[in-house]
Amino acid sequence: MIAPAPSTRDWLVERIRNSQARVAVIGMGRVGLPFAVDAAKAGLHVTGIDRDAVRVAQLSQGSNYLRNVDDRDVIGVVSDERLHVTASMDAISECDVIVVCIPSPLDHAKTPDFGPVRQVCEEITRRLRPGHLVVLENGTYPGLTNDVLLPALSASPLTLGRDYFVAIAPERADPGNARFRTGNTARIVAGVTAECGIVAGAFYELFSTSVIVIADPRVAELSKVFENTFRAVNIALVNELAILCDHLAINVWDVIDAANTKPFGMMRFDPGPGVGGSGVPDDAHYLSWVARKHHASAHLLDAAGDVNAAMPTFVRDKVARALNGAGKAVRGATVLLVGIAYKPNVADTFASPALQLATALERDGARVVFHDPLVPSVGWPDGTRRVSVPLDHDTLSSADCAVILTDHDGIDWEQLVQSSQLVVDTRNATRSVDVGRERIVLL
């Protein structure tokens, strides 16, 4: 469908507000699939595009492969024909809004790879027509829209801000957060031009009760990276505090509880075995990369990344010392990891520190098993697939050490302690357990 000139902007805004706009979501991964489902639930007709033929086949049958997306939602939007999935980029031509959900992965040197985003933008350019809105959801660094997206689209003879529109709207999802979801979380939207901002703002008003349109795309990009970096730096601070408290033989949780009584100038962060997921561990590296590119200091960002990345090794050492105190060695010991997901109450194991810890313990000769009520099986670092074991008395009592890594709701911590020979608690999940505390070693 071709937009009439000269009021392309008004035509597209009207289609969006009347829920007539057709939406293409490119990349049906951790960002794209949840967005596509939300858009379809909002009443829009959505076409998901992914080059992975297995994903396309699964979704076409209503089969969900992401545990942070409700199976019933996927089945519902597919069966209602609100979500169609294809591997063909040609579907772009039939849509009005194109949402790009392609990440920029970090290489071994922590340098972002913009090749995948650039290739997708080139595919869009070949099919760009009047009345298209192109939105980038994945954020990496301040300048991605101007440096990567716009140069690719500029190959089109169409005029930006008159014929087609471009914006950045970095996702703000928090898997497992029951309080803040897509609908009640403010969305930051920035158009490349004022006209672009108007169109993009109208689109995101379909999903969020609060849409904040700002003028500079770099501000939107940097705000997203800063949000995750803020968490990464503060988590690193309390993780380093935990290491210091270990040397001083002070309970780090008592320190944090005491400091948290201050009603101003204090925000609570808790230590843990490391950080995982796709946002918090990476965004500090994106920001550090762009800082180096512009000859700016990034010492704090680099240090935070190093501290968090080292936590699985610190926990490995803590487990070894705890076993040694019980007269046992790591080699030959059975270690039960309680929780394999990267955060509580989600089923996501992406970059989970638990998997890094498992590798370190197995390298030292331990036999490692895991229990996670939300993750029935997981791809192990050695390439095999491991299955969650029951969290019963026999499993706990036969393990030389149980290591609490993810404090999911619903686990009976008192029973866990009573049935275990030794517990290393990296989350203070056993804070309310009174009986058997002599068997508990805190982070």
Q: How many β-strands, per DSSP?
A: 15
Which CATH first-tier class of the largest domain would you pick?
Answer: Alpha Beta
Number of domains: 2
| Arrangement of strands in the largest sheet | 3-2-1-4-5-6-7-8
Which ranges are low-confidence, i.e. pLDDT below 50, for 5 or more consecutive residues?
Answer: none
**Beta-strand level of the residues, as a percent range?**
5-15%
What series of H and E elements makes up the topology? HEHEHHEEHEHEEHEHHHHEHEEEHEHEE
CATH architecture group name of the largest domain:
3-Layer(aba) Sandwich
Average of per-residue pLDDT values: 91
General form: elongated
- The rounded distance between the terminal residues' Cα atoms is 60 Å
What does this structure look like?
This protein has 443 residues and is α/β, with parallel strands linked by helices. It has 2 domains: 8-215, Rossmann fold, CATH 3.40.50; 248-442, 3-Layer(aba) Sandwich (Rossmann fold). Helix content is 40%, strand content 14%. It contains 14 helices and 15 strands. It has helices spanning 8-17, 32-41, 53-60, 71-79, 115-127, 144-153, 194-204, 217-248, 252-259, 280-293, 299-325, 353-363, 393-398, 413-419; strands spanning 22-26, 45-49, 83-86, 97-100, 132-136, 164-168, 187-191, 211-214, 334-338, 367-371, 377-379, 385-387, 401-404, 423-425, 440-442. The strands form 3 sheets. Strands 3-2-1-4-5-6-7-8 form an 8-stranded mixed sheet, sandwiched between helices. Strands 10-9-13-14-15 form a 5-stranded parallel sheet. A two-stranded antiparallel ribbon has the order 11-12. α10 (280-293) packs antiparallel against α11 (299-325) and α11 (299-325) crosses α12 (353-363). The N and C termini lie far apart (60 Å). 46% of the residues are buried.
